[in-house]
Design goal:
- The protein is mostly helical.
- The protein is 59% helix and 7% strand.
- Strands 1-2 form a two-stranded antiparallel ribbon.
- It has one domain.
């Protein structure tokens, strides 16, 4: 008798069986992004920059071949932006300043190649090159300003990223004839 009552209850709860329409199902939404850490962004900007400069100085002091130092110099240009890249910003004001520093540095380097002893008086007619010295100082100032700008503003880039995450939400939606997820955003 218990089996009959149990079977009747199961059939009563199950209701009417019907084939479901075969509509293509959308892929599930990606999991929401997590908030980023300001400390990580700062570490990503400072750490590789210090490593690049230590490696550059060590390489130049050990070996006279400056070609070995080129990758470290390139890393020194890119590394301060790593914290911004972590936060999703691809081009930064600091990277623009450091890239702009390459122009006066390149011009000064070109002037040096045409007159080997630019900083000292030479008997071949090459005296002190004040313009070359000024260009090197301008390049160093642009590089330093760009580096400091990227390091100092990395935590703010993370805060902006995290605020954008908080202004968008995926919420469940239930209607009589359907259900799913809804994207809600704040503008």
């Amino acid at each position: 008798m218990k089996a009959i009552v149990t079977m009747a209850l199961v059939l009563a709860i199950a209701g009417r069986a019907a084939a479901q329409p075969t509509e293509p199902r959308a892929a599930p939404p990606p999991p929401p992004e997590e908030e980023l850490s300001e400390t990580t962004a700062l570490g990503l900007s400072i750490g590789p920059t210090v490593v690049a400069w230590v490696a550059l100085v060590a390489t130049l002091s050990v070996d006279d071949d400056s070609r070995i130092a080129i990758p470290f110099a390139g890393l020194g240009i890119l590394a301060p932006s790593f914290g911004h890249w972590y936060a999703g910003s691809s081009w930064t004001r600091g990277l623009a300043l450091r890239t702009a520093a390459l122009l006066p540095f390149g011009i000064a380097l070109n002037r040096t190649m045409s007159c080997p002893l630019v900083l000292e008086t030479d008997f071949r007619g090459c005296g002190p090159d004040r313009l070359g010295q000024g260009l090197v100082i301008a390049a160093m100032a642009l590089y330093a300003a760009g580096t400091l700008d990227d390091i100092i503003t990395a935590p703010a880039a993370v805060r902006r990223h995290n605020e954008r995450l908080r202004s968008v939400a995926v919420v469940p939606m239930v209607r009589r004839d359907a259900g799913g997820l809804m994207l809600a955003a704040q503008f």
